[in-house]
Amino acid sequence: MALEGCLEDLGIRDILQILSLSKKSGTLSLKCQNGSGVVYFSDGQVVRATSNIFPETLGQLLRQGNVVTEDVIVQALKSQKSTIPHRPLGQILVEDYMVSSAAIEKIVAAQIEKIIFSFFSCNKGSFSFQLGEMEGFGSAQLNPLDFMLEQGLSPQRLVVKGLKVIESGPEKKIDQELIERELAERETQQTQSGLERLRGMLAELEHYELGGGIILLILRYASEIMGRAIIFDVRGSHLVGVGQFGLADSSLCADSIVRKMQFHIDSGSLFAQVIQEKVAVRSALKNTAAEESLKEFLNGEPEEVFLGPLVSDGKVVALLYGDSGPGNQVMQDANAFEVFLSQAGLAMEQTLRGAGKDL
């Protein structure tokens, strides 16, 4: 699973929910006007985070929380310097100085929350999630917290709690029972069938405000059933990239690259077939010029792809391309997704008419 893009297109709350649903391990790098940071995931749970916004070390946090004394920290750091290979400070405090692991976890969890919540207000910037198991700690200078939570934090809980913190302010005590109720509701929604998920997405679609909102809903739905996806606007005989999910590029935001994509709709291509028949297809890509260009962009040829039309006023206004991605994620609930696309196409056309401009 690869995930990279711009925060103006996919915010931190949506990213956390996507990574929670995927239950993957890896690192999420964030850059925005507030600063930069890295969040570490293990099986979809947040276990560590660092940021230049809050550069406090574990020792400083533990002293502020009255968990340890200055003398203990000094002795533990001295012991750490003479230990090869590197031992995390938290491990030394627990094993050699009998400091409560639970107390350290509580302090670190609070700092992780503070770091993640600081990115909730970012509306410009970039993000990149790299799949893979976490590397060793290496150095406390590179990992100021020098500690990894044994029991990770739920991204879903972070989203719910973060929104409450923003609404009420960081100083006000958060109602934990209210958070638990909202989490229970979210878990119930996640276990619903494809039809129930569709109903929920259609309900959200009724309250769109901008075309970008519609695209985000489509990509969010796609993220639950596909490995990656691209939305193309149909402009005459050409397809123009609008947005994406699950694509990665090492140098630029994938969204910026997608928006520069432009393919001619070749006769006999899958693109032409979907536009002419106005129905979705699941098939391998053909060998037309447009499809060969897409294969090159994707760095390979997927075994099966999904192409779905957004139809409004009897014409196809956009296409949704999706596949299993590098991780070979199985595409599910395609029929329900087709229904959602038909409604999204109508909503998108209404938005274009109201805005009087292209996406």
UniProtKB/TrEMBL annotation:
InterPro entries: PatA-like_N. Pfam families: DUF4388 (PF14332). Residues 4-165 form the PatA-like N-terminal domain. It comes from the Bacteria. This is PatA-like N-terminal domain-containing protein. It comes from Desulfuromusa kysingii. The lineage of its organism: Bacteria, Pseudomonadati, Thermodesulfobacteriota, Desulfuromonadia, Desulfuromonadales.
